[in-house]
């Protein structure tokens, strides 16, 4: 699907949860073209979290899933190659913009979830009006996030993030399009990870705990593809 179509689907899905305090969007963007389209149509992005796995470990995850009949091996390998070719440059772009927090996914699920949630709170904690859980409590902001990335140097302290960033990678005027997002719109975070990184599961768990909205673009795209095949 084109970046234009995917962004419109994403926008529609977000508008279906108008009372969300925070949006977690997993599996997006797929490439820099998606980033350009997003900046023109939706604009608001507070930060991104990368669930980091080594490629060879994700390949083993995919092979195991294929043996269990959970994934189609050829499609999963294609998605993995696309991730490292097209999505990782997006992660690098956000890292250079000081909008990315990276956590190591190759650990016990409980430890990964703890650091994933802490990474989200770290991004949201610099806001003037932080989001609240469904129970009305404002989340506690961690002082740091433990990453334990394999074979990686200790992370350099990040500069404070502004409350909301409007990214721009295209200088074309966008006066012809009126974004549905208005002043005071809730925070939007992207969750990036390759196939088998459990990014959607992590987002589901956080959404259940907080009452926030999770939009899985991977599930939306698979549903759209299946619908097209049935026509």
UniProtKB/TrEMBL annotation:
GO terms for molecular function: ATP binding; nucleobase-containing compound kinase activity. Gene3D superfamilies: P-loop containing nucleotide triphosphate hydrolases (3.40.50.300). It comes from Photinus pyralis (Common eastern firefly). PANTHER family: NUCLEOTIDE KINASE (PTHR23359). Keywords: Kinase, Nucleotide-binding, Transferase. It comes from the Eukaryota. This is Adenylate kinase isoenzyme 5. The lineage of its organism: Eukaryota, Metazoa, Ecdysozoa, Arthropoda, Hexapoda. InterPro entries: Adenylat/UMP-CMP_kin, P-loop_NTPase. GO terms for biological process: nucleobase-containing compound metabolic process.
């Amino acid at each position: 699907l084109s970046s234009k179509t995917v962004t419109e689907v994403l926008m529609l899905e977000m508008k279906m949860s108008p009372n969300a305090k925070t949006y977690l969007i997993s599996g997006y963007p797929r490439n820099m073209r998606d980033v350009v389209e997003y900046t023109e149509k939706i604009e608001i992005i507070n930060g991104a979290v990368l669930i980091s796995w080594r490629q060879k470990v994700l390949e083993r995850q995919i092979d195991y899933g294929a043996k269990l009949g959970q994934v189609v091996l050829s499609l999963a390998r294609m998605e993995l190659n696309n991730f490292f070719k097209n999505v990782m440059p997006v992660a690098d772009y956000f890292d250079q913009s000081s909008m990315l927090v990276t956590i190591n996914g190759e650990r016990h699920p409980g430890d990964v979830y703890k650091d994933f949630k802490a990474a989200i709170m770290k991004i949201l904690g610099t806001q003037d009006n932080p989001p609240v859980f469904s129970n009305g409590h404002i989340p506690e902001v961690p002082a740091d996030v433990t990453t334990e990335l394999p074979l990686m140097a200790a992370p350099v302290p990040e500069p404070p993030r502004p409350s909301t960033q409007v990214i721009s990678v295209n200088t074309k005027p966008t006066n012809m399009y009126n974004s549905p997002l208005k002043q005071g719109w809730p925070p939007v975070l992207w969750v990036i990870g390759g196939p088998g990184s459990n990014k959607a599961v992590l987002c589901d768990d956080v959404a259940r705990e907080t009452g926030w909205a999770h939009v899985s673009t991977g599930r939306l795209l698979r549903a759209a593809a299946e619908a097209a095949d049935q026509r």
